[in-house]
């Protein structure tokens, strides 16, 4: 068996850059945006720092001046900093998630709720001896609320709850629950 000399985090970064390049080739109507995220799981001692690239899928339904649903594709790259446990280890996370958003349009401030489920790949299977996942492949499910504002609602801030686990593919499966705050800018 031939093993790659590159560490897992370098492979994940290469995959993220490849996906970002692929999504950057989308047409101009894709309305790309960038999101900066900070999250925390107090139970397992994890701080998450992330950067997501979001792209409008082109799926829209509803009244552009009232209730409106759209679908974005989120390409996520995050770093988990372990703050608890023995033999602590930081983790790099990469994933893609279809993200549905229900907005109440018509004003200068646009409130929304959003939800999505997508696959994640982790660079390591543990943040400490006490928090071991058993698989690097995980699922992320999230739900959140926020508000868009600005002349074209190009600024957004929000809160989301994100749960990651391997859906009991293999045990142990402790999962992690992150409370996240984010800022997003749409170009």
UniProtKB/TrEMBL annotation:
One of its GO terms (molecular function) is acyloxyacyl hydrolase activity. Its EC number is 3.1.1.77. InterPro entries: Lipid-A_deacylase-rel, OMP/PagP_B-barrel. It is found in: Cell outer membrane. The keyword Signal applies. The record marks 166 as: Critical for activity. The active site is at 163 (charge relay system), 165 (charge relay system), 177 (charge relay system). Homodimer. Has lipid A 3-O-deacylase activity. Hydrolyzes the ester bond at the 3 position of lipid A, a bioactive component of lipopolysaccharide (LPS), thereby releasing the primary fatty acyl moiety. This is Lipid A deacylase. The lineage of its organism: Bacteria, Pseudomonadati, Pseudomonadota, Betaproteobacteria, Burkholderiales.
